[in-house]
Amino acid sequence: MDSIIAEIKKIPPVTRFMCISLFGLTLSTMLNLMSPYTFLYSSKLLWYKWQLWRLWSSFFLSGGGITFIFNLLML
Predict the structure, then answer these.
(1) Is the full-model pTM beyond 0.70?
(2) Would you name any one GO CC term (predicted)?
(3) Of all residues in the chain, what percent carry a pLDDT higher than 70?
(4) Are 6 and 18 in contact (CB under 8 A)?
(5) Are 68 and 26 in contact (CB under 8 A)?
(6) Residue range 16-45: mean pLDDT, rounded
(7) Which end of the chain is more exposed for a tag (fewer CB within 10 A), N or C?
(8) Measured CA distances, 62 to 9, 21, 67 (Å)
């Protein structure tokens, strides 16, 4: 387990953040832990209700399946 954590720490911080974001958001929607509509961009919700995570999360939400694997490989 320590070797896995050591390997993850070797990844540059920005890439690590992007991979964890993509993996976490997609996994939570695939397992129905959260609705995908919680993460999608909506300008009304962003500016009037100050849901600022929508700027970040809309880029990292993937459909699952083979597209998820390709998105993860592209990072």
Answers:
(1) no
(2) endoplasmic reticulum membrane
(3) 96
(4) no
(5) yes
(6) 86
(7) N
(8) 24, 10, 7
- The sign of the torsion formed by the CA atoms of 64, 70, 71, 75 equals positive
Amino acid at 34: M
What gap in Å lies between CA 75 and CA 72, rounded to an integer? 5
Closest CA to 32 of 60, 58, 64, 54: 64
Asked if 15 contacts 2 with a C-beta cutoff of 8 angstroms, the reply is: no
pLDDT at residue number 12: 94
pLDDT for the residue numbered 2: 81
Domain that holds residue 18: 2-74
Say if residues 22 and 60 touch (Cβ distance below 8 Å).
yes
